[in-house]
Design goal:
The structure is a single chain. This protein has 423 residues and is an alpha+beta fold. It folds into two domains: 209 residues, Cytochrome Bc1 Complex, Chain A, domain 1, CATH 3.30.830.10; 188 residues, Cytochrome Bc1 Complex, Chain A, domain 1, CATH 3.30.830. α10 packs across α11. The N and C termini lie far apart (50 Å).
Length: 423
Amino acid sequence: MTQESQNTEKTYHQSLDCGIELIGAHLPNRRAVAVGIRVLAGTSDEPADLLGMASLISETVDKGTEKRSGRELLDAFDVLGASRGSWVGRECSGYHLLCLPEFFEQAVALHAEFLRTPTFPEEACEVAVELARQEITALEDDPHALLDKLLGVKSYGSLLGRHALGERETLDRIVREDIRKQWEATYRTGRMLVSVAGSLEPRVVAQTFEECFAGFGSCERGGRQPKPIEFAAGNWHFPKDAEQEHIGLCYAGVPIDHAEYPVERVILGVLSGGMSARLFTEVREKQGLVYWVSAWHEHPRGAGMIFLGASTMPERCDQTHATLLREIDRLGEDLTEDELARAKAGILVRSEMAGDVTCSRCSELIDDLFHFGRPLPRQEKIARVQAVTMDDVQRYLAGHPRALLCVVTLGPRELSAAATVRQ
């Protein structure tokens, strides 16, 4: 077991006999308890002909159990005053909970009930499939979400690039029994990571999960190997009758556990860390090219991708594309110490102000477990960002050039041949 002291916080990390890998932060002064349950089964674990299954499981797993109907389960959570939710990603499905310490054991038991003994009512499954179809249709009216889907496929490939909603043709094949079989194949303690932050003693937390999840499938660990990325360098245009042109760029970054990851964070802070960042000031404020512009990075296990996105007028598509590339390239030429300091300060402030302390700490810990296999001391993360120098940035840019670039445009006009050559 690993321990770290930061003020009154103590972290712990252990593998439970039931098969769950547990990580937590004992926060004596916090009134609420936050829980994160991450099942290592996401969209990349779906059968290729039944895409959308991970989301359908997430939508239906709590609609009825061997003991209660979906309505009765919902009422049981409401009696505890518990706040909960779920999400689905490329490699994981997640369930989160916030409750008072005195209701922790009951709330975890309810989670164990629907995760272990779902009945997947026929009507609930049919409704979930129909809602997924409607959401896919709604994507056509949400250019940012549609661009994200199109860019994801080209950036990650046919496996990691799958969209959580699936596809119309695959949804049309899915029936209740398919959902039940996929849950049976992927939900078990050997694929579960759990994080807890709050005032409960580690012994109580471990004992609760041992009792609630003992015997839930195989304890053998699974879902921990990186999935292959099929990055497609090139330019793709998707015609759409719209007033705006949407541009997405992607190129390789570094994994979150890479020594240069803090440098990459600072570089993105310089590009898109606020209203004084380069993309906002140069692309929007000075040239008035875009409605929206941003830069971010994503990190599947063992990999990293850097993204830039913008929305502009169709006639300004080439100029916006060229300006985005210029701002990436210019980082290696005229970065200043003031910009570096502002970017680092912004990262540290956002880290400290990231919503509720208990929930953010819980989320941070489970990310540590997923990427590092252990809790990473917060002071260590802060120190790594604070230590980034101008020389570090220059070395990163020299060692990770944007040699291969994936570009996706969505709108009435595609990039000119001259613009694509200039890449």
